[in-house]
Amino acid sequence: MQRRSLILPVTCMAALLASTGTLASSHREAPFITGMPKVDGTDFYMFNSYESGRDGYVTLIANYLPLQDAYGGPNYFSLDDDAIYEIHIDNTGNAQEDITFQFQFNTERKNLAVDVDGTSVPVPLINIGAITAGDNSAQNVLETYTVKMITGDRRTGNVQPLTDAGSGSDTFDKPLDNIGTKSINNYATYANSFIHDVTIPDCPMPGKVFVGQRQEGFVVNLGEVFDLVALNPLGDRDSRSNTIGDKNVTSLALEVPASCLTGENTVIGGWTTASVRQATVFNPAPKGTETTASANAKGPAVKGGAYTQVSRLGSPLVNEVVIGLQDKDRFNASEPKDDGQFATYVTNPTLPALVEILFGVTAPETPRNDLVTVFLTGVPGVTQLPSVTPSEMLRLNTGIPATAAGSQVDLGVAGGDFAGFPNGRRPVDDVVDIALTAAEGFLCGGDVNGSAPGGEIGNCGTQDSQVNGGAIVNDGALPDPAAYLTTFPYLNTPLPGANNVAAMPM
């Protein structure tokens, strides 16, 4: 039997888009993590770098601390000094990390003070003057971080630091959040000075690292999705608004030579996690300053014990709309090697059943072997390693060339652009529309390689062809390619908390 190709002619795609017309990627997706936003992983991107001159590099971006309002002072959005943030790479297919990049943060409070009638009094603000890349003397809070590369098991493997390629330092500065144009006049230039060239252990070429605030890159019509999918799912793809377009997020971004991530194959799997100490004891009289005679006290909480994983994210939307409510915390604490326990949520997904109830659209048959391929094993010959343990992670074939920024198709593979999701994930990929479309049976019986070997995606029960006419199901919120950078770290400059410098008296 001739297998159906998913490589759609341009005219066919245009017709689909013209005739047609569930979801934050992982923002506050599980009950327990909603109480710990500093370690709430929101999105994970992994793609072949498309910045000019960066062929052969892979960019990894893990976003944390969701739904930041830019004006959220005076403390803004620092990360957790007591947590570890990690990006894991599996290059053997056994669903266990072979390489881990581990980020740890340190916050220094300088206790800046001003003279008030002869008395030096600590200020309540994060800065007391303008900040530039070359002068942070008016900055009251400074964040730094280290990045370690762990080969093998994340807790028992070989640990080596990443270092600045110029200075050799293993400690990197994190920029202040975008408070406003009076505090930081040119934030884009300021933030760019915190992109570091880094020496990566056992890697012959340097990479890049950046940690700091960025404009939220995920696009979704969030409120209507969670209001019982109050959408027109077959309406125009740009018929509604991106409800989180006015938010910022904090990005941990790395660019690494692909050859330093891969094993014997060009395919890698990746995911991000955050872990915190198991025990916390709150201090009823926390440390302050000499002003309150408490400078020698301990902090507001004393933490100890082993690190325990509380956040996990590979492919977008899995814990958000696939895993059942009471298993979401368990998923966040789990590792890919143990994903067999969640298989029912993929083979028998609830979202199409809910859509059938709400809209009368017939759900594809089960078991959903198409979704097993996309989410748990990768596509044979494309994003699947020769030996693979079914597990949820984002998979990327580093051997498929990147598509230039101006030519990327936001539907990724479903739109004929094989350099996009689910072959990795780029910032512009509209993973909500892709996921909704896949859930409703677009991939059933598909084959991304056509008549060539490999590429088989799998059937939906007995259905070996597209269900529901191959419609592009969407939330009405469409990514704008102009809203992203075309250079590392790719996510846009964060929105300022204030933009009123012209109105301020000088």
Helix/strand order, N-terminal first: EHEEEEEEEEEEHEEHEEEHHHHHEHEE
Gyration radius, in Å: 23 Å
Which regions are unreliable across 5 or more consecutive residues at pLDDT < 50?
6-23, 502-506
Q: Considering DSSP H and I runs of 4 or more, what fraction of the residues is helical?
A: 10-25%
User: Which structural class do the helices and strands define?
Assistant: alpha+beta
User: What is the straight-line distance between the termini?
Assistant: 76 Å
The helix count comes to 9
Average pLDDT metric: 91
Strand proportion: 25-35%
- Number of DSSP strand runs: 19
Question: Main beta sheet: strand number and arrangement?
Answer: 8 strands, antiparallel
Shape: globular
Question: What's this model, at a glance?
Answer:
With 506 residues, the chain is an alpha+beta fold.
Plain-language structure description:
This protein is an alpha+beta fold. The chain contains nine helices and 19 strands. Strands 4, 5, 8, 9, 11, 15, 16 and 17 form an eight-stranded antiparallel β-sheet that branches. A hairpin with an 8-residue loop joins strand 4 and strand 5. The longest helix is centred in the N-terminal third of the chain and has 10 residues. It is globular and about 80 Å long.
Could you give the topology of this structure?
Blueprint: E1 4-5, H1 10-19, E2 41-48, E3 57-68, E4 84-90, E5 99-109, E6 113-116, E7 119-122, E8 141-151, E9 158-161, E10 163-164, E11 172-174, H2 187-192, E12 196-199, E13 207-215, H3 222-226, E14 248-257, E15 267-282, E16 301-313, H4 318-321, H5 328-332, H6 343-347, H7 350-359, H8 369-377, E17 394-397, H9 431-439, E18 446-447, E19 456-458
